[in-house]
Amino acid sequence: MSGTLVLVRHGQSEWNLKNLFTGWRDPALTEKGIAEARTGAAALKDHGLTFDIAFTSVLTRAQHTLDLILEDIGQTGLETIRDEALNERDYGDLSGLNKDDAREKWGEEQVHIWRRSYDVPPPGGESLKDTGARVWPYYMTEILPRVLSGKTVLVAAHGNSLRALVMVLDRMGRDEITSLNLATGVPMVYRLNADSTVAEKTVLGDMSAAH
Ligand SMILES: O=C(O)[C@@H](CO)OP(=O)(O)O
């Protein structure tokens, strides 16, 4: 057995609440989002998890989620690496548009394809595959080596940058990944084998409410 990797999606943001495509835009967490981060922290505490290093994106909602978690588990000041490789997928021209307005304009199916397909990018933005093209190398070079050295590593990031990682860790195919939605503030704990495969996955909360 090797180390432990914990992935957590940021809590609800102002734009999640307003139902807007967000991508690389930088809204703050809502009160609910703050509460979700704290619930995630409590679950980590219950499981006795403490961390050696944390990673997050350059976006406020993920950094704030990480700060809240570290505060609640008593690890404020933990070494943290911020990198835009972990940012949300770039939603391109859809950024800032209302998701229901987009469904009315382009149809339910097209919007679902842009949001959840593997390789169809939204206009001017990144597909999940494009997002993976920056997340996977970053994981391989910066995150995985630390886990394999026996460390416990926390990653606070975004719905789609984490879907790209979960796709690889859970060995999901391009069809399966279209139905994967990650809930906000719910930690996923991966214990990795020395060969980097997953020995055990535990979800600390309810993923079923995710959409
Ligand atoms: O708007 C976004 O950036 C993301 C995450 O909130 O939305 P979606 O669920 O459509 O991938």
Explain briefly what this protein structure is:
The record marks 158 as: Transition state stabilizer. The chain is of the alpha/beta class and 211 residues long.
Please characterize this protein's 3D structure.
This protein has a single domain (4-158, 170-192), classed as Phosphoglycerate mutase-like (Rossmann fold, 3-Layer(aba) Sandwich). It has helices spanning 14-17, 31-46, 60-72, 99-106, 108-116, 128-148, 159-169, and strands at 4-9, 53-56, 80-82, 152-157, 188-192, 198-203. The chain contains seven helices and six strands. A six-stranded mixed sheet has the order 3-2-4-1-5-6. Helix 4 (99-106) packs across helix 5 (108-116) and helix 6 (128-148) crosses helix 7 (159-169). Bound molecules: 2-phosphoglyceric acid.
Domains, number:
1
Structural class: alpha/beta
Widest sheet: strand ordering: 3-2-4-1-5-6
> Number of DSSP strands?
6
Oligomer type: single chain
The assigned CATH architecture is: 3-Layer(aba) Sandwich
Amount of helix: 25-40%
H-E string = EHHEHEHHHEHEE
Distance between the termini: 33 Å
Shape: globular
CATH class: Alpha Beta
Name the features.
211 residues, Rossmann fold, 7 helices, binds 2-phosphoglyceric acid
Lay out the secondary structure:
Blueprint: E1 4-9, H1 14-17, H2 31-46, E2 53-56, H3 60-72, E3 80-82, H4 99-106, H5 108-116, H6 128-148, E4 152-157, H7 159-169, E5 188-192, E6 198-203
Parallel strand pairs: 1-4, 2-3, 2-4
Antiparallel strand pairs: 1-5, 5-6
The structure holds 2-phosphoglyceric acid.
